[in-house]
Specification:
429 residues, alpha+beta, 4-stranded antiparallel beta sheet
Length: 429
Amino acid sequence: MDRSDWQQARAYVELLRKDGRRDDDIRQILLNTGWSEEQVAGLLSREAPQAPAPPPPATPPAPTRPSPATPSAPAARPDMNRGVLFGIVALVVLVVVILIVRAAVHSPVAGPTERARAGPPGDEAPPHEAFQFEDERSEVPGQPPGTGPPVEAMSAGGRIAFVAIPVAGPRGGRTTLCMIDPDGGNLTRVDLATEHRCLGPMAFSPDGGKVVFGSLVDGNWDLYIMDADGTNPVRLTHNPARDHLPAWSPDGSRIAWVSEQGDTFQIHVMNSDKTGQTQLTHTSRNDRPFWSPDGSKIGFTSYHDGRPEVYVMNADGTNQVRLTDSRGQNYGGDWSPEGGKILFHSTREGRRWEVYVMNADGTNQTRLTEDWGFDHDPVWSPDGEAIAFVSNRHGNWDIYVMTADGAHEVNITNNPKTHDRYPVWLPDQ
């Protein structure tokens, strides 16, 4: 394993942590993709990443002759080998049993927005799960007919953009930006420049002609803007901080995003031509910005009171008001097209993420999904009649669509080879 492999794997580990995975879950993922126990231990180390030194060459022991007067003792190697083999078999059986039990109870924990430093995504959740890949292959979901009945939500109009991430991790291909109709048909892939192998959440301009996204290039996360067909990428930020989670204002003039320096997450805003970069939040930990339809307010998630809650502030950062206050964790979100409601996801009723909706003033908080998996990152359709969201209820992460009241949930991607994440519902062009 060379240094580039090691650095890519370390980036993979950090991004899984950012997406809320426990170290135990990350360890199992790495073991399943071929890393040894020793390599996994090094990759999970919290210290600065360094490629492991190659092991020194083994020095064979000097040959010895048995004494002619004393018969040599019988070699114990066969018994030792049998004991080691028995131990390995027992360990494999134990791991298989644990995996079966875990699969029967719940899927691997993930949540949609933050880095889990010392706890699970039940305690902290992710901004994104994005991988850097070693080759140019791309896995793209199939086009299933859907897993539910045909309903009006499936013809809500527009297109749904999402990122397809190979289940196999960094050795399984590269992330892919995809577009799909709300009924699961007409799947297309956006070809990106080769340097953009590691994609995070994205935001489209109001007319759908451009997309801003976070990308890991030259060892650092920065924001880029490009045409919706993948051409003409332009770098917007260039600093040591991790810049990600962009949100485009409704009039297309401004972009809000999160800049992460160490454990500090703060919301910034800039003009769409990358001028006028301004920090809006200054205390605690703040991320996941989303705009009101009139552009006067920005919703966001803040740890100001010790746990993640949904807040709203003026577009200049003033008048920050908390909307949620419950046990568990609450993450925004998306504002409805008419401005009266806000989608968010929460663990308030258990360990799993579920999708909720509330009035824009924080009242009438209502649960929309209820299943054994993790449901998060909900977004409104352009007409406000349907909702797209991410769920792992059937094993891997897929894009689902449901009516605005939470009924008639349909899996529209349904590909076991990819994790499909970060939906954005685009208007009709």
